[in-house]
Amino acid sequence: MAASPLRHMRLWPLDFRAYLLEAEYESPVTSVRLSGGGLGIITGCEDGIMGLLDVVSRKYTTLLRSHCGAITSLTVHHERPECCTTSADGSVRIWDISSHQQLYEFDGAAGPGRVPSCAAYSPSSYQLAVGTDGGLLRVFDVATTALLQEHQQHHPRQHSGSICQLVYTHDGSYLLSCGADGTVTVYDVKQDYVPVQTLPARPASHKASSGRGSSQCACIAASTVNQLVAVSQWAAASSSSSSDAAAARVTVVLFDGRTLEKVRCIETSAQNGFTRLKFSCDGLDLWALTTQTSQPHPAVYGSTASKHLAAANSADASAKRCTCDTANGCWCSPSSVLMRFSVLDGALLQVLPAPHGPSGLVTSFDLPEVAPSSPQLLVTGGTDHLVKVWAVPDRQQLVLQQQQQQQQLLGAAELGEA
């Protein structure tokens, strides 16, 4: 057997007078092996496909498909048992969750700035929106793999950098794209995805970051229960404040997904920006992921959470250099913090500091849908190579835990006075 980078594989007799079999593949063949008995040829290709070619029947069977680069995003369809992955290899693939087989593949356009960075399923039709690291938006019809729409950077409402996140509103009327340039672009789906509005996520004086996934990048979320859309926005710096920390404070603005009118503004104590927002399954809570550089307290709840987070941010602002000397990790390095807000009044209900320890950052989290009688779960994935599942307390449990913490603080204060 002989394989070449020209996508051909040939089977030769030992005298090499004339080849017995020739096969052409979609990408260069990187490895070939004969199966037991010599009647099957197993090939591995540069595009991540491994297949078996039957020498007698000339039938080819795909055994395995995979990405050849890092997976940049993953999204699950809201009804169908399938998920979509985008990769640095330039491809977008859709997989059957039950059989683990690839259903569709969309090849990204060649060239810089066209690597897919995120994707989102439409809730109203079988369409897939894909964003790239160069600000290009493409919309596909999944069933036919046809390209329906493509929006370039030169549009005045388009992003000048990478598209970090794509979210459809609950009824599928609008598509929101979040860019590393600090803007959120709104597309009207019914008008062939025409950009109709831009929502600024930071004041003009705030320096934008070009890195995808940076805390400087805005983030968005849409509720699957009601019509609310959440957008993180950088608060303008106070004229009387000269500190950079004050300029970096972030608010979360809730919009009506049907009219795009502002409904509520949630003031937060986060100073490093949010990297991900997610509504709870019932639409009553909003979870937000951020980072801080200070030793965290244990999980705190209710009004106690606001006080502990404010104290942590104060320590963060005053820290100049690391003085830690511990075998358990340095708490002066950035650690992740998950915050839980009430959608009804914007109150901070819960703070989960350092879910993956002092040396592990949370890269993503999700709130999977569960039965109404089952407890809510929180799933986190981190740089420590771990996936953790947390039990989320309900509102009644939050009240009890808050009362217990207040009693503990009161007892500690009385002991200190004594």
Q: Describe it for me?
A:
The chain has helices spanning 244-247, 302-318, 395-417; strands spanning 2-3, 8-11, 21-24, 29-34, 40-45, 50-54, 60-64, 71-76, 82-87, 91-96, 102-107, 116-121, 127-132, 137-141, 146-151, 163-168, 174-179, 183-188, 194-200, 220-222, 228-234, 250-256, 262-267, 276-279, 285-292, 300-301, 335-342, 348-353, 362-366, 377-382, 387-391. By secondary structure, it is mainly beta. The strands form eight sheets. A five-stranded antiparallel beta sheet has the order 24-25-27-28-26. Strand 22 and strand 23 (262-267) form a beta hairpin. The longest helix has 23 residues, at 395-417. It is elongated and about 95 Å long. The model is unreliable at 208-215, 238-247 and 314-321 (pLDDT under 50).
What coarse outline follows from CA principal-axis ratios? elongated
**What is the C-alpha radius of gyration, as a whole number of Å?**
26 Å
Poorly predicted ranges = 208-215, 238-247, 314-321
Category from helices, strands and their pairing: mainly beta
State the distance separating the first and last CA atoms: 86 Å
Largest sheet: 5 strands, antiparallel
- Total count of strands: 31
The share of residues in extended strands comes to 35-45%
Helix content: 10-25%
What's the number of helices? Answer: 3
Strand order of the largest sheet: 24-25-27-28-26
Integer average pLDDT: 80
